Q: What sequence folds into this?
């Protein structure tokens, strides 16, 4: 594992426009049946401009940032040996259809664990005004024959 | 919002996953890792079968809580550790059971602890969703 990755910051990802039908599609996929995810009137009644994404939708934008990390030629990360060990989201506000979101990834830690490495990264997701929406923190376990949930 | 009392059950639900659920999540999320829909690839890398995406399980757990709350505005943070995979059988699928209870309450927030099991085994640990009061 390449310890030089710690502290590395990646350029912001291209703006991602959150579509209404994408939110509905994602909500259906995660069995999110609260009306605010799919019903425009229900979302508006709660004060939102459009349908509201489920909390883990931020992963869609975070994934674009993690692709940058995986593509680093010196990362030493092989997808087939990578396991998603931990995930956390810290929210400033919910994601709503119509948002234009950008993610910026920073590698915050690498820890050796036996023959494996735990890589912690934080993707800060901001809106078109540059305001913070959510920070997505991932811990990836990179190694061989590791136990856990595959990414 | 109703007051939270430690130990109260916020929500409980069993979700039945099929291979279709995994393909649907792959498309919705953009995670097309073939271990989530191809038996041959899963076997090749030594897995016991095709697995549900960890993020699908995490997403189902928060969906159960949000359905009970009715809104996501109060959600401050949500984190999990993935411990065991959910193997989704091609014909029988797999059940994921979610139990959400109030774990702690302070002046500003309540911590909702999620117990997420498949075949009586915890698949997520330290699954906690914190909401503002």
A:
């Amino acid at each position: 594992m390449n310890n030089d990755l710690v502290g590395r910051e990646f350029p912001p990802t291209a703006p991602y426009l959150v579509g209404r039908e994408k939110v509905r599609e994602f909500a259906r996929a995660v069995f999110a049946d609260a009306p605010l995810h799919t019903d425009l009137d229900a979302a508006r009644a709660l004060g939102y401009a459009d349908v509201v994404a489920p909390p883990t939708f931020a992963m869609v934008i975070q994934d674009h940032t993690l692709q940058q990390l995986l593509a680093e030629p010196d990362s030493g990360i092989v997808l087939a040996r990578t396991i998603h060990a931990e995930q956390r989201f810290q929210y400033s506000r919910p994601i709503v259809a119509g948002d234009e979101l950008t993610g910026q990834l920073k590698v915050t830690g690498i820890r050796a664990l036996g023959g494996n490495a735990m890589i912690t990264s934080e993707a800060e997701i901001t809106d078109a005004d540059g305001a913070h929406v959510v920070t997505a923190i991932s811990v990836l376990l990179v190694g061989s024959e590791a136990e856990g949930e595959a990414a | 919002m109703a007051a939270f009392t430690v130990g109260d059950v916020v929500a409980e639900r069993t979700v039945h996953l099929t291979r279709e659920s995994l393909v649907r999540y792959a498309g919705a999320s953009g995670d097309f890792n073939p271990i989530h829909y191809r038996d041959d690839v899963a076997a090749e890398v030594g897995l016991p079968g095709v697995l549900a995406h960890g993020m699908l399980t995490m997403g189902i757990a928060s969906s159960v809580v949000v359905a009970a709350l009715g809104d996501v505005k109060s959600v401050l943070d949500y984190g999990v550790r993935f411990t065991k995979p959910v193997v989704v059988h091609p014909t029988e699928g797999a059940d994921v059971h979610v139990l959400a209870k109030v774990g702690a309450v302070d002046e500003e927030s309540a911590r909702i602890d999620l117990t997420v099991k498949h075949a009586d085994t915890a698949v997520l640990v330290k699954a906690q969703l914190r909401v503002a009061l």
